Amino acid sequence: MNPLLRTPLLDGLELKNPVMPASGTYGAALEGKEFGDVRELGAIVTKTVTPKPRKGNPPPRLAETPCGMLNSIGLENPGLETFLAEVLPRALELGPPVILNLGGESLEEFEWGVERVQETGVVALEINLSCPNVQGGALPFATDPEACLRIAQSLSNRSELPLFFKLSPNTHLLCEVAMAAVEGGAQGLTLINTLLGMAVDWRLGRPRIARGVAGLSGPAIKPVALRCIYQVRQVVEVPILGVGGIQSVEDVCEFLAAGASAVQVGTQHFREPLAGVRLARELGELCAQEGFSVQDLQNRLGKDRKRNRDH
User: Fold this and answer.
1) Inside any domain, residue 172
2) Which CATH number covers residue 226?
3) By the 8 A CB rule, do 218 and 68 touch?
4) pLDDT for position 105
5) Which positions are catalytic?
6) What is the mean pLDDT of residues 278-307?
7) Residue 277 phi/psi, 5° resolution?
8) What pLDDT does 130 receive?
């Protein structure tokens, strides 16, 4: 382990570097290993798994944009039982610690899922409260602080594993929702999920995505992600997994400086299957060249602000 890249997240959970794939962009890393050595990733985050199988949304459900992409996959997955039996054992064999992303459409589904995945070998759960492509984009748990508090309390009481709640930028109450999640027992947060967006085929007179509205990801959302992380870091002290438009090692450093504890690489993986591996290598090289560590970078903006205030 490169000591400059050591990334402690929680007691008993330390990563060898802060780079991991974002949920929904890398499966369970089984495809990625065909391109190179995914053991260089700090962790693996799985695609969202739900208690029951989901076919996902009707096509077309992907559209390229000038600075990213729109998707409306709809959490297509084989269901939790099949995932645990057929996919997770192979993902665990890859080497990096596995964070399982869990979805659901009701409190009861989340409760059952959390209870089912205890003692399965994963190191943490990422609770997906914020997918805009299910429930008509209503996002009740990610936009209502009281609803978020209730689900956080319920799930934390059912889990021995640390819970990272993945939140939505599609609300003006993001900081309030984040504080509610932490008050309810979340040990960490993931910021952000996709922004609501749309693409139109004016010649055919219809949206380019079958469901109309979809989730925007890629470089276009990076400034929004940085703003969300920076603002939420002012009100909570738990680890934040930062995601949204990361392509370069400079992007990684910006997210860490803004308050992220580690980062997730998403849309870039569609054009570069080993983007996360590359960024982990480049971050090690940059740290050695510049003489700083990941922990030196983390929340640098907050440290500078505190230093200025103290003077």
Assistant:
1) yes
2) 3.20.20.70
3) yes
4) 86
5) 131
6) 90
7) -65, -45
8) 82
Angle ∠(173,26,245) on CA atoms, nearest 5: 45
Residue 25 forms part of a structural domain: yes
In the chain, the DSSP E strands lie at 7-10, 13-15, 19-21, 44-45, 62-65, 68-71, 98-102, 124-128, 163-166, 188-191, 195-198, 200-201, 206-207, 213-217, 240-243, 262-265
Q: Work out how many domains the chain is built from and give that number.
A: 1
Cβ(129)–Cβ(110) below 8 Å = no
Give φ, ψ of 275 to 5 degrees: -60, -45
Encode pLDDT of 259-276 as tens digits. Answer: 999 999 999 999 999 999
Mean pLDDT of the residues in the chain: 94
**229 located within any domain:** yes
Name the phi and psi angles at 244, rounded to 5.
Answer: 145, 90
Domain span at residue 99 reads 3-56+74-195+219-310
Work out whether strand 98-102 and strand 44-45 pair parallel, antiparallel, or are unpaired: parallel
Q: For the residues 212-233, what does the mean pLDDT come to?
A: 97
pTM above 0.85? yes
Q: What are the distances in angstroms from CA 18 to CA 3, 172, 178? A: 12, 28, 21
Residues 195, 245 contacting (CB under 8 angstroms)? no
Q: What tokens appear for 274 in the block? A: 């080993």
In a domain, 68, yes or no: no
> What does the pLDDT look like over 46-63, one tens digit per residue?
999 999 999 999 999 999
